[in-house]
């Protein structure tokens, strides 16, 4: 690689660092519930760049807290399909899937969120909002109740 190419690459790296460092940050609450009866629940506030998709939030969370490490498959049309978070796996034979809810208030295990708060989009297809709450719940899919 020539000297000029190295200068250009170093400039681009420096520029990217400056842009990322100055990108405004927001705070979101990310909650995990496991099982229909919410046997497991944990929640944490994360500082993330403004205009982050929820998938980007998941990557940030996984790098900060191991409870948020996840796996997914990728569909070319719909994007990432979450199959595991924190060693809790979906199970299609039991109709057990991850559902994401977008909420203004922090979720309460004693008051299950209504289906109106279910995200209409996959994790790649919506950006998070400052001070919102995002609940990922591993629970049974019931076609008569969910959609």
From TrEMBL:
Gene3D superfamilies: 2.170.130.30. It comes from the Eukaryota. The chain crosses the membrane at residues 6-22. Keywords: Membrane, Transmembrane, Transmembrane helix. One of its GO terms (biological process) is cobalamin transport. One of its GO terms (cellular component) is extracellular space. GO terms for molecular function: cobalamin binding. This is Uncharacterized protein. It comes from Polypedilum vanderplanki (Sleeping chironomid midge).
């Amino acid at each position: 690689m020539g000297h000029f190419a190295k200068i250009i690459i170093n400039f681009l790296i420096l520029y990217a660092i400056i842009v990322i460092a100055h990108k405004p940050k927001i705070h979101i609450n990310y909650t995990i519930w496991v099982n229909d009866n919410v046997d497991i629940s944990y929640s944490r506030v994360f500082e993330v760049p403004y205009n982050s998709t929820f998938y980007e939030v998941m990557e940030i969370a996984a790098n900060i807290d191991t409870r948020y490490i996840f796996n997914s498959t990728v569909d070319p049309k719909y994007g990432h399909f979450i199959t595991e978070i924190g060693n809790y796996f979906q199970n299609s034979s039991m109709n057990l899937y991850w559902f994401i809810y977008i909420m203004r208030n922090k979720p309460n295990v004693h008051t299950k969120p209504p289906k109106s708060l279910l995200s209409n989009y996959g994790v790649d297809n919506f950006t998070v909002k400052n001070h919102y709450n995002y609940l990922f719940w591993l629970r049974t899919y019931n076609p008569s109740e969910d959609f």
